Protein 1
Amino acid sequence: MYSSSYYLFHICFLFIISSTCLAQTNFHPKAFFLAVKQDPSTLQYITEIQQRTPLVPVKLAVHVGGENVWVDCETGFKSSTYKPAHCNSRQCNLARSTSCGDCKTKNKTRPGCNNNACYNIVSNPAMNNTFYSGAEIAEDVLTIQSARGPVVTIPKFIFSCSPSFLTQKLGEDVKGMIGFGQQSPVSFVTQLASAFKFSRQFAICLSSSPQENGIIFIGHRPYLFAFGFDASQDLFYTPIIRASPEYYIQVSSIRVNAKTLQLNNTLLSLGGTRISTAVPYTELEPSIYRAVSKAFISEMPKNVKTVSPVAPFKTCFNSSFIGISPLGLGYNAPGIYFVLHNPNVFWTITGANSLLLVNQGVFCLAFVEGKKETGEAIVIGSYQMQNNLVEFDLARRRIGFTNSLFFRQTMCSDQFYTS
Ligand SMILES: *[C@@H]1O[C@H](CO)[C@@H](O)[C@H](O)[C@H]1NC(C)=O
Ligand SMILES: *[C@@H]1O[C@H](CO)[C@@H](O)[C@H](O)[C@H]1NC(C)=O
Ligand SMILES: *[C@@H]1O[C@H](CO)[C@@H](O)[C@H](O)[C@H]1NC(C)=O
Ligand SMILES: *[C@@H]1O[C@H](CO)[C@@H](O)[C@H](O)[C@H]1NC(C)=O
């Protein structure tokens, strides 16, 4: 079983030696947050943590289904508190080490290359074909901002120390990935929940502008936006359906306006629907893509003509006659409804999340045709989640959606925590 007393001892120890923390001995934060912003070149969502001694800011790409936090230790990693996990230690077990031994690549130890250290496997789903690598399991200091209190220190945060090549396709200065997977004891949310004794949950709210911060809430509600609106009141839930680090839900059908699409139900239930922040646009298995595209085109007003597609999209429109929704919901577009485990529970995708202006005069349906070989029916990507709040409630094995915050005249950048 995972014990958190280890962290608590060290947190208290730090409080005692630091006079500013002395007054905080009884402070038990139950909620934290991270600012998150889209990298315009890679479309990955990036957050920044403070790590090491002395503390430095480290940019990491968000991966909700990731099992661990991994950081490039090969280039520019300096810390006086870095500690590799020794073979067969508790840390190796928690981080599911796959191998153990001496680092033979160079005749000199450094972070990421020590003797008698254990390794696990880390991957970058943003890279072509998904690259894997062994990475040294280690501990170091990490700090995080609590939602209604000070910055809090976790002295021995467990992470994996990866080679530099794995950071490709993440964006400039991005040094790794921060995983929020549900099963691993060392995912970011699990380590925080264990250290501070709150039930495992987090919520993401991705901004649509690369200039403006969205937010990841970790821990307890509320999720406060402008004028005190608490987005948790709008959440509707669907169960998490698989035992996997990644998050799968049941999409049982899709509607476009009032039309229910004829889809392969076996594919929908067996293939499943995954939620991924590493994928910029929702991927639909080819037969599902074709059905959505066809219905979307036929439900568009007749004067909106299709035009030559612009990759990676396959369904594009002349923008001249696309209107803006009078309700402030983005572009006027047919509504796309993902019906979840129950016919009365559906996620609504409006024009702001279904259409993308790709260049002057051309809008595209912001969904892509996935590869048949993956077997997955749907991978919900970040564009469709922008300005929606999505809660991952691991303890109760369910995922909550709010629908577009535009319905509430607010958006993910419109909160006082990170803006
Ligand atoms: C490692 O470095 C030491 C000291 O610099 C040297 O004596 C030794 O031969 C080196 N070993 C290898 C395998 O290069
Ligand atoms: C992966 O790489 C191949 C060859 O370089 C390229 O043709 C393909 O488009 C790439 N796929 C993605 C998703 O980047
Ligand atoms: C439906 O999907 C399943 C699973 O991918 C596949 O085996 C089957 O052939 C599909 N049925 C049709 C009619 O396409
Ligand atoms: C869009 O329609 C307008 C008006 O009919 C036309 O002038 C323009 O060339 C069209 N744009 C594209 C990309 O087809």
Protein 2
Amino acid sequence: MIPLLDLNAQYEQIGADLEAAVLRVLRSGRYILGEEVAEFERNFASYCGVRHGIAVNTGTSAIHLSLVAAGIGRGDEVITTPFTFVATVAAILYAGARPVLVDIDPVTMTLDPALVEAAISPATKAIIPVHLYGQMADMDPLLMLADRHGLVVIEDACQSHGAEYKGRRAGSLGLSGCFSFYPGKNLGACGEGGILVTNNEALATAARCLRDWGQQERYHHVAKGFNYRMDAIQGAVLGVKLTHLEDWTERRRSHAGAYDRLLGGNPTMQLPTALSDRRHVYHVYAVRSRERDALQASLASAGVQTGLHYPIPVHLQRAYADLGYRRGDFPEAETAARQVLSLPMYPELTPAQIETVAAAVARDIHVH
Ligand SMILES: *Cc1c(COP(=O)(O)O)cnc(C)c1O
């Protein structure tokens, strides 16, 4: 079977270094935050081209903290996309604000800047573009709109470590950038993890305080904070993995190039669009097909595991029905949810595996 994702392949490559890092933490007696985490914060912020990094326990917490630290909460509206993992919308609700959804651009499947302005109301405080699948949203028009209306931009970069927009790294364009280190992400912990990066000193100070119960000094709570601390084992593991991230990213990009060549020219299937002003880091390689479910079944029978990112847009999820949206409200997101299919993508994928996937796709297309 060719899996969608193979974390064991990565462990085989760097297992010895990871084990040494974990042992170092076990023997240190310091298990939460500490120097391992502080060093990773510095290195990851510098990787993003940003001054401050505040490591947290999940990507969701990074988004929630960004909102709270920016003073956004009850009575405020935050604009984002329905075509994302539910965490983006959940984090807005955690902050007490109201998510206002705006449809995607069908080509990049990220927030459509042309539709954002009409959704801005006097209560709007922030825009959260999601850099979906590893390609950044169209940031210039979003930043311009935000500037004109006095809004904050928070980047959900949970799928886009190292992605670029006109030469600038994901996380460095908005007030803050939020990353997840869930194991399957392009940079993954051996457990949960996340980080908020920012150039804004005040935001960094507020977020640092809020992630550790709002303490300025021990047991002196100046704000109602959270337990969003990163543990030292994750900091040490991520420190090791960060040194490989560029190599892994270039491999992903080269695998995507191979898929593009092998799958190209097929009228019934749309390949991912990598725009020339961006660096796509292919967290996900998603094709689009009108016969998506049949294609997925036929790939499964050929031993190729695939994924759906995501089969139901947030506004049609039962848990979020109380946002008040209905089927038909975001036609591009709804169509994308019916058509996208994620093919196996991870750095250790071999040329032979890519050819097997492409051959299975070609056989399916022949039959249908
Ligand atoms: C993974 C992900 C998150 C949440 O990250 P966690 O670390 O799982 O909390 C948020 N947004 C997007 C787009 C994601 O892919």
